[in-house]
Amino acid sequence: MRLANFRNFKFSNLSFYHYFFTAYVGLHISFSLLLGNITAFAPDEKYPYLNVFGDIYSKGYKVSYLTPAFGDESPPTIFLQLLYMPARFFAFFGSNDLVAIRLMSILYSTLATFVLARMAITRNRDTRFFRFSLIMISFIPSVFLWSSTGLREGFLYFEISLILFFASELEKKLSFINVFGLFLGSYSLLMTKNYLFVIFAISAFLTSLVFFAVQKKPAVRYLLIFAMILTPILAKPGLISQTITFSSLQSATESTGDLNQNGICDVTEYCESSGGIPTTGGIPTTGGIPNLIATRGSTVHLLLQELESNPKSLVARLASTFGITEKLNLISSSALVVESDKKILENKKELSLQQAGLKNPIQVFTSSVKFLSEPLLFVDNGSLFLNIQSLETPIWLFMYGLFGFGLYQIFRRRLEVEYATVMGTFFILGFVAISALTEINVGTALRHRSLLLLPILVIWVARKKKPVSI
Questions:
Q1: Three-class SS of residue 128?
Q2: 10 Å Cβ neighbour count for 5?
Q3: Contact of 356 with 364, CB cutoff 8 Å
């Protein structure tokens, strides 16, 4: 009987989401395995996240190891052990640690995407347009890369999706699962990236005020949503004073400059201590020959170094066969200039964003536009990989248009909205504003910008078709 059923099976019997998630998981896993030991595209994989995974289950674990990954105040050990449990599971069945944290990231990213799809289905918004948008955000090359590597983005995608989903569910139905799910998402986000938690808490507060003002029905449910989002702050009470201090400093600042860390080399950049500017790390100064400095971004130099260090790896052999290694050598060589060359400072500026100050609203707006738009299409953005990433600009513009059109429909047609829609809108606006004040590196800003994609689609699917009765 089972054999007969199998013979009668047709792939056309499968739904869109069978195909979608099979492709999503399969392609992400294949890509992460193909990378092997290559971490040039995401240097943070090795330090700190691989170190975190290696330490949290050991007896000699020290919270100081986690500072670069989880902020000044490290999360409780038990939280991190539970958060990394999927990686622990994969490692138990034979995966090396790097592959294990990559598979874990893919798992969390897949769950976030599943939550988004479920929201669309339960709200009758599972249209062809939504599916097209879902495919677009899932397979943007850079987002695909970050969700295939062992970075923090997988955690953040999942945590943001939990908050928006359970806030929406709790508005409709009071249940233990909805209350606990919202608390869990908020607590996990607080421990993973606390400034995002602050933005969500402020967004929930503003959303509650909006609903108190416009809704005639009892608002106890909105208070509960806000309470569940805010409650985890009891685990980090010092965050309140930190937020106040940050706000005070920003209020008194016009601009904090336009150089990445004022020219100081980041711990993950391809550099040595030579005036705080990235160097090739292996070129000595002999006979009066000046040091050579590596410009045009660090990814090319790191990737070439890793390919040459692992010549027998699959990705290295493929790169050599298709002439990629040779091309990278040419690009890397042409990007080496003497340390006195003014091109170093010019290139540093190209790779950096100008941080705004609250005292200059126009500058905040300008920096926000740069955060949302750079790297720019059809111009030189200062590095090979930023120029490649600029090809994604049409997709980003499409998503921004989706956000704007969704809000236009709500206000123009006076459509009824869910709590998650208003909160997601406040979160997007707050996140862009904070990024204008804090982002300093174009490449890092682009990675952080991917956090906008989930809220944009949630706003799209959480609109109600019923007009508001006046």
A1: helix
A2: 8
A3: yes
Task: Tell me phi and psi for residue 283, to 5 degrees.
Answer: -105, 110
Is the link from the previous residue into 375 a cis peptide, with omega within 30 of 0? Answer: yes
Cβ-count burial 105-131 (b if 16+ within 10 Å, e if not): bbbbbbbbbbbbbebbeebebbeeebe
How many helices (DSSP H) and strands (DSSP E) are in the chain?
24, 6
The C-alpha atoms of residue 295 and residue 273 are separated, in whole angstroms, by: 15
**What secondary structure does DSSP assign to 248-272, as a single string?**
HHHHT-SEEESSGGGGPPPTTSS--
Q: How far, in whole angstroms, is CA 89 from its chain's centroid?
A: 24
63-110 pLDDT tens trace: 555 545 565 557 888 898 999 999 999 999 989 999 999 999 999 999
pTM of the model: 0.87
Positive or negative, the CA dihedral 454, 455, 460, 461 is positive
Secondary structure (DSSP) of 377-408: TTS--SSHHHHHHGGGHHHHHHHHHHHHHHHH
Q: Is the Cβ–Cβ distance between 298 and 278 less than 8 Å?
A: yes
CA nearest neighbour of 293 among 276, 280, 275: 280
Question: What 3-state DSSP class applies to 336?
Answer: strand
Cβ burial 161-193 (10 Å sphere, 16+ → b, else e): bbbbbbbbbbbeeeeeebbebbbbbbbbbbbbb
